[in-house]
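Appendix B. Chain record.
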Amino acid sequence: MDKIGENMNQLGTGIKKGWTENYYRFLTVANLALNKVARPITDGAFNFIENNITVEEEKVDTNMGESIKKTLKQGVIKSHQLFVTPLDYLGGVLRTSENELAETLKKEYGIDTNQWVFSRENLEMLEKINLLADATFQEVRHISHFKSMRYLTAWTIIQKLDRKVRGRQAELEKAQADELRDGLNVATLKIAQAELMYYALFAHGTYGDVMNYVYSGRNYNKLLAFVDYTKEFIAYTKILAEDLLYSFWDATPYRPAYCIAHNRYRREIVLCMRGSNNWADFATDLDFHYLKFKIMKENDTKEMYLKFEFDEHTQLVYKDRIGENTKYFNFQEGNEAFNHHENTLESGFAHAGMLVSAISAFKEITPKLEEIFSRPEYEDFDLVIAGHSLGGGMATLMAFLYLVHPLKAMKGDPKEKIRAYSYGGASVLSKDFDLYLKHVVTSVVFGNDIVPRLSYGSIKDLCKIILTFEQVDLEEPQFLKNILNLDIGEEFNDIKDEDIAQVQRELDLYQKIKRELMDSVKLYQMGNTYYLEPVRKPKKNEATKGGDADADKQKASQDYDFMICEIKNKDFFEEIIFSRELVKHHFPHLYEEGLQSEKVYYKIR
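Structure tokens predicted for this chain:
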């Protein structure tokens, strides 16, 4: 009987839990429908009526007509208020009930509704991101989508034309690099290449083989199935299962996925930050507004922290999440060890969404790392942070945060004990912080990969480009047509001097836009930066017919040698390169193929 009673209680608890969850979902959807459907339709209808009230002037004099219109408008406004009042009341009831149920779910069943897709917090966050995006494109909203695409197409053509002209030097540079290769310290080059390749496995292992399924076009069924990321990571990196110390794979807004591994072969702890993999990650990517901040240092304690400077947009979205500064990372809450004697070491900008995510990850991961490095077996270990895409941006920011707020259990200088590797990583910091991260962060960019070149500043530049071509279209529509009619092939080895003379005006327009208009503040790749440049081999009369995806993939790789360029001038990545490969070049396997290539050249830009 006791067993039956226990089972009945469990059944009753399960039914109550299920009912509460479903009722909360119903209230969430109802609130969403009220605010995003009913209210906009109601407001739009009454505004339309109010703005379209007319009186036939031939039937009444002007003064009477204006009086009638005013009376009718007042009536519409009163009706609008009467209609909206019950909607406001209903919205208040729904919000109150939603809050109570959310509290019940968290208190009685341990369910955090903020991790649900349609949670209020997530919806509010997306709404705020939408407002920021809307403000970003405000200056080009008057231009139709068709015209915007037409102008960007014209920009792509003259950009490609400029690359084509400059590409005449590519073969010469390759030949020069080939001659220089024997004069370089080949052993040093191979070590650097091997290091980059080695940590690429940790960066890409957070996806497992998922990205390779996407590229090959096969095994798409695996994308739809449940992915055991722990199993995938262990298989990809070939570490022992017991060496995966911690993992968190269910990313939510401002809380990225990661894992912490013990690398027994190199005496280091590897923190692996996963790149964009679900809607929450993409929401973080799209939260691209800039957040201004300073690195502060106390004169007495020598402690450092970040101090944020909010504008009306960033305060609305981020202040409640991260506070005004990061002093609380150094001391327990309520400790007044900080005084008012402080200096600004550096100031600049960060990708707001990713900095907020990095701070969230820092709060969660730091206690784990403190516990790990406090163990005797790990006391002299280094910390390596690696990631691709969003994960690369997170790796850069996490290294940055651990330089500002060092781990107390880690022995030694943080600049000597911490290294970060970013592969195709998002640009997350302005140039102001590059020197600070020199020799700590290593960034790698493959070909025309769009992600490292993308920031709020580069998007603002695109808006300026669209406005420029709108002006060209108004003043000289035939010139725009001439640009759109240019036949620019993909190859760089067939252009002649007479061809250049014929398109000199188009080249001058490109250079003028770059020089005078593309001046928005941008974010950059940090630290030691390398460009993995594919250099096409001479064409051969060969083709694979009827081959599978792996054979085609192998052939595509064999069409290129690779040139590893050390980039000294960070402006090299400030412009988005429009090409067919701007997305393809972001795939992790291409980074690995390039770094594994036997034929690698080396140069400095």
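Further analysis of this model is presented in Appendix C.
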